[in-house]
Design a protein that fits this description.
Elements lengths: L3 H4 E12 L24 H4 L10 H13 L3 E2 L2 E2 L1 E5 L9 E5 L5 E13 L5 E17 L3 E3 L2 H4 L5 E3 L6 E7 L6 H17 L12 E11 L9 E6 L2 H20 L7 E6 L4 E7 L9 E2 L6 E2 L2 H10 L4 H12 L3 H7 L3 H14 L2 H19 L10 H12 L5 H13 L4 H7 L8 H14 L1 H8 L6 H11 L6 H13 L1
Parallel strand pairs: 12-13
Antiparallel strand pairs: 1-10, 1-11, 2-6, 3-16, 4-5, 4-15, 6-7, 7-10, 8-9, 11-12, 13-14
Helix pairs in contact: 5-6, 8-9, 9-11, 10-11, 10-12, 12-13, 15-17, 15-18, 17-18
Bound molecules: adenosine-5'-diphosphate (ADP) and magnesium ion.
The site of adenosine-5'-diphosphate (ADP) has 16 residues, from strand 1, strand 10 and strand 11.
């Protein structure tokens, strides 16, 4: 099994359900609210009381058009709402209003940058274009609560606050090939949803939910294998881990001479394993038919153009601008545009410190590492672009060293502050005054006569060792440029 990557390839398609940022529900005037007391954001229409009729929310249509244009898709002039029939306690109507054969959006794509190890800089990006089959409007279902405390002693209770909340289901082509590509696709899509203000797309609030379809095939094979669908993955890590676990399960089956059976899978993050929930239902089971309560949705081309004109700069446009105008690499530009808040942080830092390259370096290497370690978003730290820019100016101007800057950076992230004042208060100024460096250099030269002889003989390699010794004696505060010059002057005269 260890070398499975050489023998097998994964095929992955992602379905995303994203809550649209509307004030009210898709077909009722009930408000869309999170954290509301159960059943306090509902309307007769959500309850499916007799005699009610759905009325389409125009804002939801607007947002679907925005997303469609942002993913280079066709916004269809005519789309049709259909009933998807199934029984579930949190679905009072006994059907969900969705779109089936004629969705509002079809045939789009987005470019995904996937970091791969390699190159002297550690990482570079491979850009892949991922097709998007369709995006359609539908309503969310309510929630069943199986918790005694909440259900007041009953086995289960039902909360219909979420019933009828507008969703856009975005279905990708089976174009993804690795778990990392799948999560990079999701991050990119989330960035776009936020950039065009279509959804807050917060996975923790259930505003962005993901199902991953996975199949495997032998390398070189051109037809697809049988897929399974892992439901309800609610973090990027879960998406990657679940896809890997499911692929390994399938490979094991195939290696044992068994067949993969099409099924809906659950994922257990504790054990990092997938399990069969039910054998896959077919579209036939849903008895789709056009909803007789709703007329077809017609969208005027002029309206589409008006929406297009109102779109802000999109992440891929921003990425291209960062590369062309600010001189960033494709990898840097890709990373910095995965979220609007990160991109804005970068732009402010770059313009405040005057060096886009340094700003990109610091954000990618230091800021993102901290965010990942502490599972934070950029706006949840004390660090501001002005602080980071101040620190960058100190380092680039040789006023503090990399090691001292790391210390100042750690304080800025947790407590904030003025980088220059912190540097002075904590005595973290670079020692470039020649007296101090001279002294350390003399000590080091006296302590390592062999090394010095080697350098005199024309071998520059051990110079780094001596520099390290001087840095150490200065407690990391000596400015490396002056240290080097001083040593060379003293050794070679
Ligand atoms: P369903 O309604 O059955 O979930 P959809 O057409 O909505 O079907 O979604 C199917 C998803 O599965 C798409 O994202 C598609 O790219 C993906 N998919 C289709 N065939 C395969 C396959 N052989 N392996 C992996 N993913 C697949
Ligand atoms: Mg589907």
């Amino acid at each position: 099994m260890r070398d499975w990557r050489e023998r097998y390839e994964l095929v992955i398609g992602i379905e995303v359900h994203t809550h649209l940022k509307t004030a009210s529900k898709l077909f009722s005037p009930a408000p869309v609210r999170y954290g509301e007391e159960p059943n306090h954001a509902v309307h007769e229409i959500d309850l499916a009381l007799p005699g009610v009729l759905p009325v389409l929310n125009e804002q939801a249509v607007e947002l679907a058009i925005r997303l469609g244009l942002a993913i280079h898709a066709t916004v269809n002039p005519v789309s049709i709402f259909a009933r998807k029939n199934y029984f579930y306690p949190d679905l009072p109507k006994g059907y969900q209003i969705s779109q089936y054969e004629d969705p509002i959006v079809s045939k789009g794509w987005l470019d995904v940058d996937v970091a791969v190890p390699g190159g002297a800089k550690g990482e570079k990006a491979v850009r892949r274009r991922i097709g998007i089959t369709r995006a359609h409007l539908e309503e969310d279902a309510g929630k069943s609560i199986h918790d005694d405390a909440i259900a007041g002693g009953a086995d289960s209770a039902i909360d219909l606050n979420r019933a009828g909340v507008p969703l856009l289901e975005i279905v990708s082509e089976p174009d993804l090939r690795t778990p990392e590509e799948a999560s990079a696709y999701l991050r990119t899509l989330r960035g776009i949803l936020r950039a065009v203000d279509v959804s807050d797309a917060d996975m923790e609030k259930g505003q962005l939910r993901c199902d991953a379809n996975v199949s495997i095939r032998r390398k070189g094979e051109t037809t697809f294998g049988t897929r399974t669908e892992i439901k309800n993955l609610n973090s990027f890590t879960h998406v990657e881990d679940a896809i890997l676990a499911e692929a390994l399960r399938q490979i094991e089956l195939v290696e044992d001479g068994k067949a993969v059976v099409q099924a809906t899978m659950g994922y257990d993050p504790e054990r990092k394993r997938t399990h069969v929930q039910r054998l896959k239902e077919n579209a036939d089971d849903y008895r789709y038919f056009p909803d007789p309560d709703l007329i077809e949705l017609r969208i005027d081309p002029a309206r589409i153009e008006a929406v297009r004109a109102s779109l802000p700069e999109l992440p891929d446009q921003m990425r291209a601008r960062f590369e062309a105008a600010l001189g960033l690499s494709a990898y840097e530009a890709g990373v910095l545009t995965t979220s609007r808040s990160l991109a804005e942080f970068f732009e402010s830092t770059a313009s405040a410190c005057g060096s886009p390259k340094s700003a990109a370096n610091w954000i990618i290497r230091d800021v993102l590492r901290v965010l990942k370690e502490r599972d934070l978003e950029i706006e949840q730290t004390a660090l501001t672009p002005a602080m980071l820019a101040g620190l960058i100016r100190l380092v680039d101007g040789g006023r503090t060293t990399a090691r001292s800057a790391a210390e100042i950076f750690a304080i800025l992230v947790t407590e904030g502050g003025d980088p220059e004042r912190l540097m002075v208060e904590r005595g973290l100024e670079a020692v470039s005054d020649t007296g101090a460096i001279d002294g350390f250099a003399d000590q080091v030269i006296a302590a390592h006569p062999d090394v010095v002889a080697q350098i005199r003989g024309g071998d520059d390699k051990p110079l780094n060792f001596l520099m390290g010794q001087v840095m150490k004696r200065s407690q990391g505060k000596a400015e490396p440029g002056s240290v080097r010059q001083t040593l060379i002057r003293k050794i070679r005269g």
